[in-house]
Amino acid sequence: MKRNAFVLVLIVSFLAIGTMAFAGGAQEASGPVTINIALANNPISQAMAKLVQSEYKAEGVVVNVSVLPENDLRQRLTTEASTGGTTYDIFYIGPYEAQTWARNGWLENLEPYFDKLSSEKAAWYDRDDLIKGMADSLALDGEAFGLPFYGESSFIMYNKELFAQKGLTMPMEPTWDQIYELAKKIHDPSKGIVGMTMRGAPGWGMSGAPFVTMVNAFGGRFYDMDWNATVDTPQQRGAWQMYKNILREAGQADILSYTYNECIALMASGNAGIYYDATSIAPPLEAADSKIKGKVGYVMAPHQALKSNTAWLWNWSMGINPKSSAAKKAAAFDFMLWATSKDYVKKTVDLDPTGSSTPPASRSSTYELPVYAKAPYASMTLKTLEGMDFTKPTLEPVPYVGLQYIAIPEFADAGTKMTEYLADYVVDKISLDEAIRKTQEVFEQVAIDGNYKK
Amino acid sequence: MKTRKTEYRFLMPAIVVVAIMTQFPFLLTVIFSTLRWNLSRPDLPRTFNGFDNYLYFLKIESLQHIPEFYSILWQTVLITGVTLLLCSVVGFILALLLDHEIPGVNIARTLMLGPFFVMSTASGVIWKTTIFNTTFGWYGVIAKALGATPVDLVSYHPIGVIIVLFTWQWMPFFILVLLAGLQGIPQDLVDSMRIDGVSWLQGVFKIKLPLIMNHMRVAIMLGLVFLIKEFGLILVTTAGGPGTRSYTLPYAVYMQVFSANNVGRASALAVMTVVLTLILVNLLYRSIVKRNARYS
To answer: In the CATH scheme, what architecture does the domain B16-120+151-295 have?
Structure first.
């Protein structure tokens, strides 16, 4: 492992941009146990960083929290986990990492820790209250390797005012065909009204997220059970065409520069009819400075050939670094229970009654709290969350899990390439045939390079 | 003989340091380029696979399916070549303008150099959001005021956008070097030029340009080295897109390491980039040396 780290330092230092800290594992023999965790710099995680100092009390335990930008965090933790570092005792990650890291042995199995819990503590924690799809996304063969802190799924948000003006109604469970027709009817460039907005900027976590759920909805898949790439199928072609048609005929003008930030701005300005994105986007649309506050309707993620489970799933979760000392691991587990407990959720509501620092989508009980129950998006969010099945993403059986992505380490790259070809196709730089062929080749290569194909 | 040996021993530490600092990383890259090594798959063994990483990029299986490497190579050559051409032509013209002793010329010179001192990532973000954006940018606002529909330049003309930005950023460097050359032309030569009744065009192209040709070559050579590895501007503006339409070799290397985690393939690509740059720089360098030999 040491040699591994050395070699990695060498490549990174000459190929790379930026610096990287390899802190030696400073182990203290006695005294208080210090556990280290780095969080992502999004509002809900930052709220936890504040709460830890004032609210978390455990004897002989000091929790050090640092906050890093998402990309930095991901890169640093990946390096840390792959080289066996002990800078952080808790890894703050998503289901994409959890799946592969658990398989690589970079995460501690949490089942033994749960087994050791006293019955009172187990009843207090109420594990069954964790939303099943979320917990499943952090488990390998039914055994938990992470606990969900907060998460999101995806649904359709639409501007009720624009719909009323045109005399249109949004079905509760729309198909992509219906969404496309509605978007075209709303679209009115002369008045600056965009029919539908979606992420267009390439990247597996950017346009890849809505697009892969679209592929799933159309009955497409990326691999058959023998790991043959199945991008070149009529189902996939249907999804590719639909994505392009919606955005070219009824979407924003600079399609490819739209990340979710631009989409939110456009939607909140009242100039867009429909918006398909994460459930966590709803609060900013209902915020005081949004022009469409109280005018947004929420319905299920669109389906097509696949009738249900067409939304996506993401979460920020916590797992334990298996290289940390036993004392630290025990302290880390206790801290994770606290951070993902009902008490924590209640605490955030007490301190911030708007609910903007309350972790959503981790526990069903969160949606029974008054602050949440009255939010216009609450019931649809819960309905979406409860319908998710992380393990059966597609119409036909597949050898992988994951909803808006495939939970293999190579997908970050292959998925990004796919969205690049998608972008290329959307702006007519290449034909559908060429885009599909290139993507098919990428996925086929992944199956061969990664030894998936037997 | 003895003195020579002593000198050599004195030089040894410096040579060793320089060799380790400059050549060792490259040597390591060459070694890595022969490995099958994916950082995100610690479960797969790291194995020697000869030239497979190179073949992955270079091998043409059929003429319909030419690997992406060649289009990326072409894009790199196109972007670098056109930028160098624009920089040297326009840079020369601007340097001529700035070579006049008129009031305020120093301010003008300083202003012209401005873009060179802006961080490339910062200038990329500024251009992308405040200028090229079709809704909020100057370009979008002006186009709409004139009754035209603004086209999303970053998506539809990515290479053009990058060439414009590169030129904007690097032209000052060319102006700086060429202006130094122009100011180094002896005044009596300029005077005798005037007395002999040389026209402006003749003066510029038959006398001044040949005299500063070495400056031009140096500017082009350094510009080539800088431009071929320029990366930040591409990352923040087009991010190589749409598709791989504005990938250059360094950007492709970056994606291979930080997106694909594929150390072997990234190293192979890096080695090929270095070889390409060395060949081009060598050709330019030789032409300078040859020219100097002829003049001396």
So the answer is: Orthogonal Bundle (1.10)
